[in-house]
Amino acid sequence: MTTEENGNSIIIRGAREHNLKGINVDIPRDHITVITGISGSGKSSLAFDTIYAEGQRRYIESLSSYARQFLDQIQKPDVELIEGLPPTIAIEQRTCPSSPRSTVATITEIYDYMRLLYAKTGTPYCCLCNCVIARQSIEQIQQKIMEIPQKSRIMLLAPLVIGKKGEHREIFQSLLQKGFVSARVDGSVTDLDVIPKLARYKAHDIYAIVDKLIIKEGVQSRLHHSIETCLTLGNGVMVVSEEKKKRWKDTIFSERYACPNCGKGYEEPAPRLFSFNSPYGACQGCDGLGSTLDFDPELIIKDKHLSIKEGAIDAWNNWGSLTQTIYDDHIKTFTEMYSISPATSFANLPEKVSHALLYGSADFEGVIPDLHRIYKKTTSERVLKRLSGYMSYRTCSLCNGARLRPEALAVKISNTSIHEIMTFTVEEALAFFKTLTFSGRQAVISKQLLKEIQSRLQFMMEVGLHYLALGRSSDTLSGGEAQRTQLAKQVGTGLVGVCYVLDEPTIGLHPRDNERLQKTLYALKENGNTVILVEHDEYTIRHADYIIDLGPKAGEQGGRIVAQGTLKEILSNPDSITGRYLCHSPETITTHKRKKYNLKHALEIKGACANNLKTISVKIPLKVFCCITGVSGSGKSTLVHDVLYRALTKALHGGHTLPGKHEKITGIRHIDKVIEIDQSPIGRTPRSNPATYTKVFDPIRALFAQTQSAKIRGYTAARYSFNISGGRCEACKGQGTKKMEMHFLPDTYVICDECNGKRYTTATLETMYKGKNISEVLEMRIEDAHFFFAAVPRIERVLRTLKDVGLGYIKLGQSSTSLSGGEAQRIKLATELSRRETGKTLYILDEPTTGLHMADIQQLLKILHQLVDLGNSVLVIEHNHEVIKSADYIIDLGPEGGAKGGEIVAAGTSEEIAETKESYTGRYLKEFMTKQVLNVGNLEC
């Protein structure tokens, strides 16, 4: 198929965004197009920074004039012409929001439908005695009120407004007209002789005060009349507020919902009752988080045998000189106040004294309140990181991790609470919802809700996410899991005529699951949508309708279309690097002499049973390249990260996080350091970049400070820091950009009009090193900077390593917020590689091939093998066939994902895995290795 034959295309002319060289391309609509090429060749620049950015710009243009006022500040993509572009939706390979309130169910909007389903069809039970809630009559309400002790003061209230924004003047005017003289507004009794002025955009609670009386004999008639009035005004609900020890305690009574056994009244279930992000549904103990994070005395006082003087309070040690002096004064004040010797060990302090030291007293703030204050006020990532080391999460004792208040948890469908469903995996939840049956009015209400829930769950099943629990926090998802979860939300909307732009949707997918994902993408296409994928996966490329291969190299040497067309046309194009790798040409096959593994020289994990692991024991040989593989959800991350990494961190580095459940780990004496290199961002603001993260910026700044012009002006290295005042542009605080709040859209960053994005003052930029100022150096690609600083060993070594891991195309000062997960991981890898080696380090990497073209993977493998050659050990979690084949030892988990996984399916060399019939990995690996041996160069290869 050609775009001309299609006659319905997205026409792009003169695209020059970033490193694109004014390319012209026609992308067929209503088809699946893969944009591929080596890392840095311009794939994201074309897909996201050009196609998606233009789609977003056109969307904003369609908004109101209020929205359009921001358009002048939103940079348009550098392209001459784009025609035929439908509305665009981007689903990028980014780490999910780190909010603990975001879960798999909330991301996919499944939880929104579940809340509505429970509110409309759930059966409420009493959270005290577990009886089905029934309606209360006026007589029952009166009897319950008369059981209040004699001479007690009560108020009878009618709820009028609960948690709604507005001034509500009409409510107060209506009350006055009906003869009411007072109301309780936001917890305070207010006279209505003057109508209260309420904040318009704040949520308010308003109750009419119907009666105030004292419980005694003879008030029954008055009470009965007041109850009738309350229920009429409150639409069947009333509140009795009883004075107890100068405080008022509310009890709800309802004609609609009340427990027939204990008489406790309830409000009618509403969707907000089941929201842990709403004050009306969230557990009051943890505010809907399910756990509480607080400073842990055990972490603050690491060694109780030390005295305060000797540094027992670890959280108050090793700060800057000024802060340390303040803390030393605090300690002196405290010891004098309580008449204790500074030399007394913490363990020997009286309980009253140690409690006052940690939690404070009337005259002393206390260590933990002090840390709380700093934690809330500081904006320093370094300080936050250190303080976090003294905190730990504990399951909320009030809700036991359920996040919701008891009233919400007591509503059930098929004897199952909404929290219980959140503990289900996608597979279990789908089976549950398919078994639900309703009748009458409930059947009508539930029909569409169940359809929406099941369609999203079914999609997640199809893309290999069957093992994820609905309540799993989004910040624990891998990049691939997060992207496919977000894709489930988009597919659930059922949009037609949309252009979906996806960034490597196969990340984290085992080859077995790729086929199912491909079917889903095909279904999107069949529904009349255009699908554009930035992808390196061989299976996905082979099954695309159209392929665009960018290159020929990265950075400035990329940005051109080297090949485009159908699979057949790509394979036959001699200029296409992708084509050569798809044909398994001899020069594309990685060859490395395999090291012999020794299971006697290994780390052995015994009895690992965290999450879905089936009490397994496994040996991980050291001083070799070891690969953990298996289908999605088989337990790879649990075994490697939760069990092994956390246990080693605790044993070797005094880590705070508890490892996953296991019996023990032996062989730790063979290593002295463990380093996990993941895909989390290297920073969360434009201020962070590769130069600052790798610390190569320190010697660069020192180099500028040694120039003649800098010495004449008296500039030090600090002058060239954009994190402190002095040489930076104060208009943007050295960021080069300014944050612009969009109100109706996510915040965006625009170039600073004071320094034009250069970060520094004009005076600072006048000092040069080899004809370049500090801003120009930050704008250099790493490959160019490596040549520029070739004569400076401290700088050259770091830049060479960054270049070796395939990052020569990114800029030294490139914002960390613009880096993909794979790029962030390789920056971390390069940082570790540039440090001095002990030869006894264990490196752990989770899918290091993310974002890498097949050509880049060869370079990565060379570096990982170099680490092993130096005597280190490398452990990777990976699905890529080339990586698996190149490993010295492979451990395959499975056989399935979730509850059906967590076992060792096979272990050994690639040849041994390939011959294991029970291993899905073995089947696909055997096919891959056979193709390489046969060197097949056609459509069937």
What secondary-structure arrangement, pairings included, does this model have?
Blueprint: H1 3-6, E1 9-15, E2 23-28, E3 32-37, H2 43-61, H3 65-68, E4 81-83, E5 88-91, H4 104-107, H5 110-121, E6 123-124, H6 138-146, E7 153-165, H7 169-177, E8 182-185, E9 188-191, E10 203-214, H8 220-233, E11 237-244, E12 247-254, E13 257-258, E14 265-266, E15 291-295, H9 297-300, H10 321-337, H11 351-359, H12 367-377, H13 381-388, E16 391-395, H14 406-409, E17 411-413, E18 416-417, H15 418-422, H16 426-435, H17 440-462, H18 479-493, E19 499-503, H19 511-526, E20 530-534, H20 538-542, E21 546-551, E22 560-565, H21 567-571, H22 577-582, E23 602-608, E24 616-621, E25 625-630, H23 636-653, E26 664-666, E27 673-677, H24 690-693, H25 697-705, H26 708-713, E28 737-740, E29 748-751, H27 762-765, H28 774-778, H29 782-788, H30 793-807, H31 821-833, E30 841-846, H32 854-869, E31 873-877, H33 881-886, E32 889-894, E33 903-908, H34 910-914, H35 920-934
Helix pairs in contact: 5-17, 6-8, 16-17, 17-18, 29-30, 30-31
Protein name: UvrABC system protein A
GO cellular component, one term: excinuclease repair complex
Subcellular location: Cytoplasm
